[in-house]
Fold this sequence. Notes:
heterodimer; A: mainly alpha; 4 helices; B: alpha+beta; 2 domains; ten-stranded antiparallel β-sheet; 16 helices; 10 strands; 12% strand; calcium ion binding (chain B); CCDC47 (chain B); transmembrane (chain B); transmembrane helix (chain B)
Amino acid sequence: MSQSSDPRQPSAARPFKPPAVLPQDLPVDYSGFIAVVFGVAGVMFRYKLSSWLAIIFSVQSFANMKNMENDLKQISMGMMFAIMGLVTNYFGPNRPAPQK
Amino acid sequence: MAWPPPPLFASLSNLLCLLSVLCLLITHLSTSFVLADSHFEGFEADDEDETLVSADPLQFSNLRSPPVSHSGTPPDITKITTPETDLPDSNPTPFPSPDKSATSVDPSKPASAGFDYWDEDEFEGLPVAEQQKQATEPSKDAKDGAVPQDSVAGQESIPIASPRKRSYAIEIVCISFLIMFAINYFTGKRENENIALAWAAKFAGRDSIFEKNFSLLGVGEGDDSPLLLKEGLNVFKFYASGRRYCQGLLATMELKSRHDLISRIYNMVVPCKDEISFEVYMNDDAMDNVIFAMAKKKAAKGMQKELRDLQRFAGLLSPPSGRKWVQEEMSVISESKEVAGDMITDAVLDQVFGEKSFENFGKGFISMHFSDQHPGPHNKMLLFKFALPDFNNMADMTRLVALIPYYIDFVGRYKLSPQVRSKTEAARAKAAQEAYRELQNARQEELQKRKAEKKKLMEDAEARLSAEALRKKEAKERARQMKKAMPRMKMTRGH
């Protein structure tokens, strides 16, 4: 009868062990992918807006990051492309001459 | 579970990498190329501006007049024009060094203003002497040409200012969006944490439901272990263990992505709810052959189709007559009527699922699924899925949470009647047999594949071997032939 009054069984307690998730089973990081696509497009076509979008999406992907090592690669790739696109856009050699 | 998209995804990103390297190369090449040009461009633009400021437009259009007016200074022209035509620039700016010509020509011939004009694009490739002749000849032509020249100059002076002005809009929008994103990130994060903590305080704090039912709470070891495990910014996990009939309970809160401005905007269009799902891992000896699920009508149909155990063993049940049953919009999936009838007890109907109480207490209910044939590492599981109420109204879901220990005890004690059990056991045996057969088939296939591979390998080796033998044989043959073909000589001694 005592069993039914207190359902707790300390002897049966098992500590939590997080289930191992394989890296390929993780959900796909779409925003990181989009960031890379926009970043590459921004560098290729020297299109400012695309580079900015790449930065926004890589920031989003960074905000949603769950697994440190796995996602960081892609995010850093997208970020790098975005920054490179912006640098070539703003400090690139073919900028318009400063006006006097 | 092998999931096909990720490898594809990985290969895609690999491809992107390659592409990016290629485009880097291109950009590098193009920058060096443009760099060479840009020197000219920069100088030109500056000079142009200066002349624009200094000389009035009439004189400006005259800059190219020297060939006409001064037939005595042809070398000057060639000097000016030839390097320009050689330039690989796509939009040839027509004034390479207007300063020089302006200073040399303007004071001497101010009168011949708009008349003659040298369009070197028009006369490209002609020898210099001929060019002069032609240029002196039609002064009318030159007048026509002067107009587009002016317009070109006008066009060129405009884009210096306009793209900068236009581009600021993009930057302002993007940077303000990023700032908003950052602010939203911190506020949203705080909001989600507050919801999760409110839930934990309500249901896993002192004298709470889980405290009274489980001896171990929290994800760590020891007494003061953290209750919640944060997995990402919108996923929180809560673990409890140490109860009769079950090994443990794992609750996963999936909140809205409040920290993410983009998904927040998306959720304005496609609304979603904060959800909490409980997985109870039952002891193997504590659960009979029970397959039972309950959800809203539409969701139930989806579950019946998608979840393997429901699809395999259970079907949608129509509400029985002459008995109190669950609320109308819910539907029940079960293996047999008896199981369903036993699972939906009067107490549950009275507390949550009945007509009256559902309005007040069952709002957050999404689904419930008990199965002893769950795919995955744990076969015997009870799954519950509820919508989380507001951060202030956590008490609304008290009765829903109370369902969990109730059903753990209920299912743990539940025993099927003999005839139903024999039926369910037959079904499970059949399923197991099928699974076994499938496994056998797969194994056989694998074996056959390996065999074929081995055979192929052997054949290959044999072929190589035989090829070698054949070559040897051929070589021998040839040697013999050669021997035969050779003139027979008899070695004799001369004396």
